[in-house]
Design brief:
With 273 residues, this protein is mostly helical. The protein has helices at 3-15, 20-37, 46-53, 59-78, 103-110, 118-133, 137-141, 170-182, 201-212, 216-229, 234-241, 246-249, 253-267, and strands at 148-149, 152-155, 164-167. Helices cover 56% and strands 4% of the residues. A 3-stranded antiparallel beta sheet has the order 1-2-3, with no helix packed on it. A hairpin with a 2-residue loop joins β1 (148-149) and β2.
């Protein structure tokens, strides 16, 4: 590993304090390039890099590698390891709207749940919670009872180690309280399996798949979509979702535009002619 790469990894570890997963991703991406070409990354020209990275046919994977390289070059330029600023262009990826469910579709799925037993009560509360908060499934499963304070949810185990507060709808709070009053095991984790252990991601996937036919992440998209179509500010949605960049949240603006178009088509007299 070159000295410049070691300095960069120390910078993102100490100064930027990135998560362990992010640091490992940078290290893996950049050290593999140096290893493949057997020379310091700082001495590799753009054409050689692009030729090497062209083996990644998945454009999202390719762009992640390019992002790592650009971050490294930016660091080197700012620290005067490079005389010229180098930035490789990202591959264009078609914008795909995230899959989401309407509130009516979610209600229909909830109506299928048998709430006369603890498993059904839990499944009902979990689906409502995911739609009411937009949390990632990893965040939801890591929650403890102390993370709910009144009508607020404190997400402590967030992606990128960024905590946030989210208001919880009353109907979801009521479902959680009912569920917790029925559980047999006094454990810290809110979502438990029949043995009282923390619910697994696979089990959570099976629950949403059973009643809604989708993964838990689709409920996160459904939450964001409901907010955007309801007129919520994009930056507020960014904060609620815990996105580090507004660019990530902007995918939902396509849904907003479609909603505005449909509204005009239905409501404006000239659109009906």
């Amino acid at each position: 590993m070159s000295n410049e790469l070691e300095a960069f990894l120390e910078y993102i570890t100490v100064t930027r304090a990135l998560s362990k997963k992010s640091i490992e991703a940078y290290k893996s991406d950049l050290s593999v390039i140096e290893g493949d070409l057997d020379k310091p990354l700082i001495n590799i020209d753009s054409n050689t890099l692009l030729s090497l990275l062209s083996k990644y046919k998945n454009k999202r994977t390719l762009n992640r590698k390019l992002s790592s390289v650009n971050s490294f070059f930016d660091f080197c330029y700012k620290n005067q390891f490079l005389d010229e600023k180098t930035k490789l262009k990202f591959a264009k990826i078609p914008k795909l709207l995230p899959k989401f469910l309407s509130f009516l579709e979610i209600q229909r799925g909830l109506d299928l749940i048998d709430k006369t037993n603890i498993v059904g009560v839990r499944d009902y509360a979990l689906i409502l919670f995911l739609y009411a908060t937009g949390t990632r499934i990893s965040e939801a499963l890591a929650l403890t009872r102390d993370d709910i304070d009144g009508e607020w949810l404190h997400v402590r185990h967030a992606k990128g180690e960024k905590e946030r507060m989210i208001p919880i709808a009353k109907v979801s709070l009521q479902a959680i309280k009912h569920y917790l009053s029925e559980v047999k095991y006094e454990k810290d984790y809110i979502w438990q399996n029949y043995r009282g252990d923390k619910l697994s991601r696979i089990s959570a996937y099976k629950i949403t798949q059973k009643y809604l036919g989708v993964s838990p992440h689709v409920l996160r998209h459904s939450y964001a979509t409901s907010l955007i179509t309801g007129g919520a500010d994009l930056r507020v949605v960014q904060e609620l979702l815990g996105h580090s960049s507004l660019l990530t949240t902007q995918i939902y603006t396509h849904i907003q535009k479609q909603n505005l178009k449909e509204t005009v088509e239905v409501c404006h007299p000239m659109a009906k002619e």
